[in-house]
Design brief:
heterodimer; A: mainly beta; four-stranded antiparallel β-sheet; 47% strand; B: mainly beta; 0% helix
């Protein structure tokens, strides 16, 4: 069964360091999402891609966060420099249809980031 | 802004019994979708059930059903014949086009 892949699963870093997370969506899924899930809260959308284009990055802290999906397939989310408050689970999800509210989002296992 | 509220941080149910998880949301729109997602410990989030706002009929998926009250902006999840594998965090979510928002979640414990 096709799944969304994410790596690494866990990352520990010191503040002010750079970190990067990778996501490979389900094959053929044009829409890709990055979420941040702080412990005890629901996921919060950071950025949404349609193919290689950013559709919505209004909640992405652009002074330190960046995201790219150069070939419209896999994606990388980077944080530089990391801050203590960035400790969270970073979830990637994908869906198959352009900007459809109906379509199911398939989630990856997430990357748990701890900033010391 | 659309907000989703889950007022029950934790719930517990006896195996084989029925439990209802609550969710309310705030929106001025009439056309949107509502979802319940399940997040088991250390596993990925999966869709449990979805409801289109324009449909009056409540969605059902096997042991999972919803009570959708559009006027009251309420969307509760009922789990019948609870099983040990139902133990997880459950998130209610609202979506309209690009805007998708999740509640804070309810942790469900199933007692054998």
């Amino acid at each position: 069964e096709a799944e969304v892949a994410q790596s690494p699963r866990y990352k520990i870093t010191e503040k002010s360091q750079a970190v990067a997370f990778w996501c490979d969506p389900i094959s053929g899924h044009a829409t890709l999402y990055w979420y941040r899930q702080i412990l005890g809260q629901g996921p919060e959308l950071l950025v949404q891609f349609q193919d290689e284009s950013v559709v919505d990055d209004s909640q992405l802290p652009k002074d330190r966060f960046s995201a790219e999906r150069l070939k419209g397939v896999d994606s990388t989310l980077k944080i530089q420099p990391a801050e203590l408050g960035d400790s969270a689970m970073y979830l990637c999800a994908s869906s198959s249809v352009l900007l459809s509210s109906y379509n199911e989002q398939f989630f990856g296992p997430g990357t748990r980031l701890t900033v010391l | 802004a659309q907000t989703v509220t889950q007022s029950q941080p934790e719930m517990s149910v006896q195996e084989a019994e029925t439990v209802t998880l609550s969710c309310t949301y705030d929106t001025s729109e009439s056309d949107y979708y509502l979802f319940w997602y399940k997040q088991p410990p250390s596993r990925q989030m999966i869709l449990v059930i979805r409801q289109e706002a324009y449909k009056q009929q409540n969605a059902t998926e096997n042991r999972f059903s919803v009570n959708f009250q559009k006027a009251a902006k309420s969307f509760s999840l009922k789990i019948s014949d609870s099983q040990l594998g139902d133990a997880a965090m459950y998130f209610c979510a609202y979506r309209r086009f690009d805007d998708m928002r999740f509640g804070a979640g309810t942790r469900l414990t199933v007692k054998p």
